[in-house]
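Name: Tripartite tricarboxylate transporter substrate binding protein
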Amino acid sequence: MKKLSVAAAMLAVFGLGVAHADDYPNRPIRMLLPFSAGGGGDTLGRILAERFSVELKQPVIVENKPGAGGTIGIATVARAAPDGYTITIGGMTTHILSPLVYKELPYDPIKSFTSLGAIGNSAIMVVANNNFPANDIEGLKKLAESRKNPVQYASWGVGSTGHFCGEILVQKGKLKMQHVPYKGTTQIMTDVMGGHIDIGFVDMATATPMVTQHKVKGLAVCTKRSPSVPDVRSYKEQGINFDRDLNWAMYVPAGTPKPIVERLSSTLEKVLKEQDVIAKLLGLGISANYVPGPAHEKANLADIEAWRAVAQDAGIKPQ
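Structure predicted for Tripartite tricarboxylate transporter substrate binding protein:
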């Protein structure tokens, strides 16, 4: 038998790779989520997993792996085989803020992944007790100026998106505020309703039902107005010059073959155009808006730099 030339051997291997990609998927896919079960990120993942299962004609099995601000689960995805059978959903904390909060990450938020595309823009809402004397940022500023002590605001931890949104008001709005870190948004809402904390910064999945049911009131949305609660004005509409998107996105490990990336990306784009999915995401405070992977990766780089400036001004240092 004649030996294959190097070129022929490489062509044979490449051909096998293409055939495998063409056959994708031929077994169940794992959607590894870095969030706790029952939260907004988990609900988002399960909505998309259900639709992906139908479109790809293979089960998409959700696995939750929370911890350390989502970095444990995301690191697991970064180490997974780049074969299209492990996908994940990331947000502000996992891919934008973590590099600014942690000195050492077990992954590179840019180089360790390939983006399948942005899912949509979410937001953080500033909420207060219904009897709180301020109704917007201007009222909050006047209240802060009239007090001897700073307005206290709650977020779900140092370095969280809520913490960063609070610091934007301190820096851009010149508000006198003091950060009070909480363990989670449930405790924040309890203390806001009870009047034990001045204001709270919570995700839209938590805030939307509470505001629409008039259990609390919304003062502002960081950073852009959400169609989930359209009467609450954004930061920019209230004179705060900062309006970066807070995007959710879907990722696979870096090195995943291009045909598989394209298959998954086109599936995501198709699913995000379905009216039922759009409505369900809106209920979570997410405005569905597909952005192709390459464009989204460029936006991530710009976002990291924009939020880095916020971290530096606020004295939020990697730990």
